[in-house]
Predict the 3D structure of the following.
Amino acid sequence: MTVDQLMSKLESFGNEGTKRIYKNHGAPEPFFGVKIADLKTLLKGNKNNHELALQLYETGNSDAMYLAALMADKDKMTKEQLQSWMKKATWYMISEYSVGALAAESPHALDLARDWMQSEDEKTEAAGWAVYASYISLKDESELDLKEIEGLLDKVGATIHEAKNRVRYTMNGFVISVGGYISSLSKKALQISQKIGKVSVNLGDTACKVPFAPDYIEKMIARGSFEKRKKAVRC
């Protein structure tokens, strides 16, 4: 399937209700408003079609960009390509959930997370925390740099309420990920989440809420999250 054929398919899946929701979340034009479930139907026969994914992302269309990150071969994505994709990401659904998830599954996850968390750009910094949180959910505890993660927990506890808007959201997600997946740091993550309390984030004209980390961590532990690692975070 060619880029033009896929773009036609995407346009046919466009939904005004979905488009309105995405706009309320901050999505800029151009995009058609395609539901994630419909994007996934287009993956059939195209999964890991890396060259097509690269072409799709360059269209600048939000639906195509999201599909591109689902389609891309995580092992073929270079660090430079992921950096470029992050710079071109048009809103948080692309930077955090699309490119960020692809980066977390790639061999460059830690390098990019560490780099992006230091960025002055809100979109990039927020994605860095999201990538690290996703990375934690994918890796066995023995493979993680626990000293570094503990230091990052301390940083979140000390700075989250003064951080940029979307950074506050993904920092909160990082604490949840540590608390729910790392048994040796779970108690500390829970303590820090309780110290942080409610995290205020402007989520636009939506009904979405910021997860209350202490409750979320406790629910994850009750479900046996220490023993369950994700196989993928792109969805």
Q: What stands out?
A: Residues 113-235 form one domain. DSSP finds 13 helices and no strands in the chain. The chain has a mean pLDDT of 97.
